[in-house]
Write a structure and sequence with these properties.
The protein is mostly beta strands. The chain has no helices and eight strands. It has one domain. The mean pLDDT is 86.
Length: 102
């Protein structure tokens, strides 16, 4: 998942426009380890809009099984900003992880 120009870019060319100057909630879910399917899902909650869910998105690397870090990287070439609030990482079993960022 990549966000550029107020747009979420997902695998297979899918995109979603984001409002500027408004909080957006992203919920990412996937199974890892021996339960890994090689796919993940994304739910996007924008105030005043229907909830959007994208299921069965392929991992960027098919053999991804272990989460060893989480990064938020700004790669803009001009002055810009983004805000991250209420980041939560939950492990629901030994091998299923849900990442929620708001």
């Amino acid at each position: 998942m990549r966000i550029t120009g107020a747009k979420v870019h997902l695998p297979e060319g899918r995109t979603l426009e984001l409002p500027e100057n408004q909080w957006v909630r992203f919920e990412i879910e996937c199974a890892l380890g021996s339960d890994s399917t090689g796919k993940w899902s994304l739910t996007v909650k924008i105030p005043g809009q229907p909830v959007r869910t994208f299921k069965d998105l392929p991992f960027a690397t098919p053999n991804f099984k272990t989460l060893t870090g989480v990064w938020f990287i700004g790669s803009a070439t001009t002055a810009t900003s983004y805000y991250l609030d209420n980041f939560v990482l939950n492990v629901y079993s030994e091998e299923k992880v849900v990442i929620v960022e708001n």
